[in-house]
Every structure is written in structure tokens, then in C-alpha cells.
Amino acid sequence: MYKVLTTTRAVWLCAVPLLVGFAQDFVRPDVKTGLWQTTVNNHVNGMPPIPDDVLARMTPEQKARMMGAGGSRTVKVCLTEEKLNKGTDFGSNDRPNCKRTVLASTAKATDLQEECTDKDGTFTAKVHYEVTSRESANGTIHVDMNRMGKSMTMDGTMQSRWLADSCGDVK
Questions:
Q1: What is the pLDDT of residues 65-108, one digit of tens each?
Q2: Per-domain residue ranges for the chain?
Q3: Which has the closest alpha carbon to 112: 42, 36, 6, 15?
Q4: Distance CA 37, CA 164 (A)
Q5: What are the start-end ranges of the E strands in 68-149?
Q6: Burial letters 46-71, b for 16+ CB under 10 A, else e
Q7: Is the pLDDT assigned to residue 39 strictly greater than 90?
Q8: Exposed site from 9, 30, 53, 168, fewest CB < 10 Å?
Q9: Rounded to whole angstroms, how far apart are CA atoms 37 and 49?
């Protein structure tokens, strides 16, 4: 619907299944390849920074859903050797105003940060994950958005588990 919402969703989807990390200064996590399932639980505080003209066209029900945009979702992802070795960039190649930093990285835990600034404001995401076994990992994410004079925060947890060697139709 709007770039900010797409950005928030992209952070979560790219964080699955293990927030594989950024290419620079990244230590490959000690996990199995194959089909992974990740459940993300998040809580959103504040109104997503949506332009006033778009907000004015929304129904009260749509606005209420946006305010309570948290919740739980489960996704399946195919984690390949290539993905593990390459890392990921949070889908940020198309956002040149973003700085991605590996704060700490080992085979068992990683801390990442992404900061974006443009004419409309700022977006900061901090991610932490821990590999609890070769078949499971847990993590947290905190996002602050200050855009177009509006602020929103999102806090969430992730639980990932390996399901199978074969990914089937899952990409």
C-alpha cells in the first residue's frame, strides 16, 4: 500500500528464517540447509507514517487495523548453501540511503543494524538472533520510524525451526 509499510514488511520477510546477515563482516550461522519455518510475533506502537492524503481516504476500520498492525505470522523459506554463504542485504540494494552494519557476528549469534535517511525522515532496525541448535534459532527486532512528522515503533520476536532437507516448492 505504501513504501513504509512495504519497508517494514520487507524487514520481517528478509529476516526469515534466520536473518542470515549482511555480506560484510558476517560469520555464517551454524545451521542446516533446507526448509525452515519461522513464526514472527510483533507489536506496533504508533501510526505508520502514511501521507496525510492517503490517511484521509482510509476508513476508521482501516486506520484501526494499521494501529494494531502487530500480530503473528508464520512463513516457510528455503535456506540454501548459496544463501548462507552469501548472506542477505535485507532487500536494501534498492535503498541507497541506507547504511547496514554488522554489530557482532559469530556462528551462534548475530547483531545487525540498518539505518535509512531520506527527505521524509529516518528508519532504524536493530536485529539480534541466536542459533540455539543446528535446527533452531530465535531472534528479536526493534524498528523505529520517524517519517513525515509521524513516529512508529515495532518490536518483535522470531522463532525459526528446520523442517526438512528438501524445500519442495518453497523458494
A1: 666 567 888 999 999 988 887 665 444 455 678 888 889 989 99
A2: 3-163
A3: 15
A4: 10
A5: 71-79, 98-105, 109-118, 121-133, 136-147
A6: eebbbeeeebeeeeeeeeeebeebee
A7: yes
A8: 53
A9: 30
